[in-house]
Amino acid sequence: MELHLKTLSELRTLLDRGEISAPELTEAVLNQMAQVDPKVQAYLTQTSDLAHLMAQQAQERLQQGERTPLLGIPIGIKDNLCTAGIRTTCASKILHNFVPPYDATVVLKLRAQGAVFVGKLNMDEFAMGSSTEFSAFQVTRNPWDLERVPGGSSGGSAAAVASHTAIATLGSDTGGSIRQPAAFCGVVGLKPTYGRVSRYGLIAYASSLDQIGPLTKTVEDCAIMLSAISGHDPRDATSVNQPVPDFRKSLRPEVKGLKIGVPREMFGQGVHPEVALRVRDAIQSLEEEGAEVHEVSIPMMEQGLAIYYILAPAECSSNLARYDGVRYGLRVGAEKGHIGMMEATRAEGFGDEVIQRIIIGTYALSSGYYDAFYLKAQKGRTLLRQEFDRVFQQVDVLMGPTAPTPAFRIGELVGDPLAMKLSDVLTIPVNLAGLPGLSVPCGLMEGLPVGLQIIGKPFDEATVLRVGYAYEQKAGLLEQLRHPTGLA
Amino acid sequence: MALTLKQMRHVAKLARLELSDEKLTHYMHAINALLEHFETLQAMPLDTVEPTSHSIPVFNAFREDCVEEPLSRDLALMNAPEARDGLFIVPRIVEE
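^ inputs. structure came back:
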């Protein structure tokens, strides 16, 4: 099998045994990128020169006997993660020329472990969107059907893994932005518990919800990546000082006695019957292996979207205040004085979706409306968290679909902002409660991948990954998922 | 709780966004459609509920008060739209 088609764990073994070299592997991935990325358009910046150099350095470390999980592995990075010396745009015109002077903590960790950076990945502008169509630069296409979206906002990160132009990627997830594109592209995606991974150097959208996580070909690869990026960081005061286990060690295809909760709200209106069927089949297959399945109810999940679309825009309106044309990025209208310059720069630099969220957030926080919107949403968030806490006293994990439908067509929902946002209705509550959530492919529907979402207790990624692994082993879909039909 | 054009103008000013009435009207329709859909939350009895600003119980995070190497001036200025003599250059903000 060609190298770029292999999983991270398969390649790890080959590199460690000296059967392949890091430059050889990087070459295979860059060749694949040259062939398919003109069609998929996952990358905003390709860093092939840097990749060759990093691969060479990784090879030297391998020859000196170093054995670390990511040494020599080609990885793609979402373009909202700061990479020192490599342009980082957040897919926005306002940062079109921004070259960060420092690395995000996760990027620093990958460098230290000898990963090879192949490029920066497309996304919805400032991670606001569910289809990657809101990128200011290009539309990324779904490798299963090039006329469809890859999901978003980490659409580039998901499409790159599915099209084998990276062995694994990093994304970020504020309301589903890792899990939903993972589901749409037939790959594995994990949003870790809030605080598990440092957000230092992640260009902020909604700070109380944002979390960085991996997108990979398998659950085992996901466990390897999570161990590599987790841990407390003094530079992120919300990163939590919890021990970081070797998540790979928790992977046993063993679910006997596991209590699975199935929230009835996750199978409600808007969930395509075929999606519900695939997911119910997946849950049943774990029941056959000895898991106990309990129907549960989390009524506040139905308020998740309403809570999110107050809190996330409010935080965004504050975070995006820094783009003013003074210190970095776009500047227009300098002749209009300093206020005029800021107003012109921001209107010119931000896209429609970003502007709308800034307006909603500014309104929700403005004098006279704070109690009616922002405070109310924060209170709703408390009730939602309490309902999750209550249910997790009875069950070990929750399961449902990742997204209500498979990938939609490019352009299909752009004019219907509410329908687009409903795509995240099953993932958003997980961010509001800060929980870990994993999306694992659970089959195809009309030729398009469907994602099974597994939600865990705070900091219990080990169980979430173990259950995902057990399902993946049982389902036996990996060979089929290796070959997305849009690239055939 | 639909927004009016007048409110849109006010909010755009607060957010430092130079937008034409035509653009503001366009955004207003989209935003009002969303707010209308989310009105269900307004009807919930939440008076006695404590607000949550963070999903995990993190309070004050302290570190040792020690000096670290800061970002150098050159690096801090490397993305500046305009810089001179080690300073960011902006339009005049005080009258002569």
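Residues 59 and 84 of chain B are 41 Å apart (CA to CA). The longest strand of chain B covers residues 83-84.
thumbs up if we can close this ticket
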